[in-house]
Automatic annotation (TrEMBL):
InterPro entries: FAD-bd, FAD/NAD-bd_sf, Geranylgeranyl_Rdtase_fam, Geranylgeranyl_reductase. This is Geranylgeranyl reductase family protein. The lineage of its organism: Bacteria, Bacillati, Actinomycetota, Acidimicrobiia, Acidimicrobiales. One of its GO terms (molecular function) is FAD binding. It holds the Pfam family FAD_binding_3.
């Protein structure tokens, strides 16, 4: 059918994207009684390139949404198994007054549908297979979007008092509003696939901090193996743009070498993944600006809300979505957008120091020689690695900030004594 403009739809808030950030925003707005419409260009369930691991921060957000019972049917894990330089350390998630001491591994095709369904159950309207093709603007303000049903080809307008940009790392809708990545910030590159494994329900997610190819040569980045609990494991490898020459890195080669050299106890056939590897690039550390206009706001990956320490973005997607929902609810109640304008300051207050340290640290680990030295030293000390886990997962208690800063200073000191790798 031709691109015929249908009658407009109206709502308080239009959410562009039904992934973690968009669905969380819709959940909390609908729970507050607001009229919310979500448009998602794919149809659930849909695959998404991801490690599938939920940290304690993400588990808290899902529990607060009332989804704890649904998570109980997925694979729970207790902590991280770090592997490097012939040493293996099993590190439990730390106790924390706010966050649980466990995580879950849930395929994104199931997780994203679960949260989107929760938003619908609260009263949100969800249109899948529907793409927001361009913003609607009036008198300099964003007042909605033109959306297109991908099956019928029909377009229509959705009018809204506010628009939430949640269409992911490659946010086309955000770019149409002028958002852009600060290229001085790190960006992540990752690739993953799945393999059948007898340890599919292992209680640890695993991180390989010293990745080597079949000839024993060091490879850039770090690898992960996350047991999914359904007969498969999620296997992937990632690196940061702070690695010199990252543009020339062949991620398919990295994936093949990592799978071929994975520890034998996983029992995988490296030549027979259950699906083709998929990958992508991820803006990190709140690198996307601007995050807000008078009547629009960006959340989750569309705002660069990804942790540079470990590439984790689901928890920050849920958290920024919830924060924006609260601010939009207040803005709608007040009849103006002043509450929403607090968003950048609140994000800076919550994540600014942490992400700033993470950005600096990403420069250190972008140097392979420094990365090897850090992991060599770290793997000699369980207590140090437990601190590293707390710092990387952003699970420090307020009374632990001092030791965290001391640990970072120690890491920074290594940079001055480790030589640059030969050209």
């Amino acid at each position: 059918m031709s691109d015929v403009l249908a009658p407009p739809e109206r709502c308080d808030v239009l959410v562009v994207g039904g992934g973690p950030a968009g669905s969380a925003t819709a959940h909390w707005l609908a729970a507050a009684g607001r009229d919310v419409v979500v448009v998602e260009k794919k149809t659930f369930p849909r695959e998404k390139t991801c490690g599938d691991g939920l940290t304690p921060r993400a588990v808290k957000q899902l529990t607060d949404m009332g989804l704890a019972d649904r998570l109980a049917h997925t694979h729970r894990y207790d902590g991280l198994r770090a592997v490097a330089h012939g040493i293996t350390l099993e590190l439990q998630w730390p106790s924390h007054p706010t966050y649980p001491s466990h995580g879950f591994v849930v395929r994104r095709r199931e997780l994203d549908a679960l949260v989107a369904d929760s938003a619908v159950a609260k009263g949100a309207v969800l249109h899948t297979g529907t793409e927001a093709v361009r913003p609607l603007q009036r008198d300099g303000l964003v007042v909605g979007a033109v959306v297109k049903d991908k099956e019928t080809g029909r377009s229509r307008e959705v009018h809204a008092r506010y628009v939430v940009v949640a269409d992911g790392a490659n946010s086309r809708f955000g770019r149409a509003l002028g958002t852009a990545r600060n290229r001085s910030y790190p960006m992540g590159i990752a690739i993953r696939t799945y393999f059948e494994s007898p340890l599919h329900d292992d209680p640890w997610i695993e991180s390989a901090l010293d990745v080597r190819d079949r000839q024993g040569r060091s490879l850039p980045g770090y690898g992960w193996i996350f047991p999914v609990g359904d007969g498969t494991i999620n296997v992937g490898i990632g690196l940061l743009s702070t690695f010199k020459g990252y543009r020339e890195v062949n991620t398919s080669h990295l994936m093949a070498e990592f799978a071929a050299t994975a520890p034998s106890y996983w029992g995988i056939d490296p030549d027979n993944p259950t699906c083709a590897p998929t990958g992508g690039r991820i803006p990190m550390a709140q690198s996307i600006t601007p995050k807000i206009g008078p009547t629009w706001v960006a959340v989750g990956d569309a705002a660069g809300s990804v942790n540079p320490f470990n590439g984790e973005g689901i928890d920050y997607a849920y958290e920024t979505g919830r924060l924006v929902a609260e601010l939009l609810d207040q803005s709608l109640a007040d009849g103006d957008g002043m509450a929403l304008q607090r968003y950048p300051a609140l994000v800076a207050e919550e994540y600014g120091l942490y992400f700033r340290v993470a950005r600096l640290f990403s420069v250190l680990i972008g140097n392979p020689a420094v990365m090897r030295e850090l992991t060599r030293v770290g793997m000699q000390s369980r207590s140090l690695m437990e601190w590293v886990l707390r710092i990387m997962a952003n699970l420090l208690r307020d009374d632990e900030l001092g030791p965290a800063e001391a640990a970072y200073r120690a890491a920074a000191a290594l940079v001055r004594v480790v030589p640059e790798p030969a050209a």
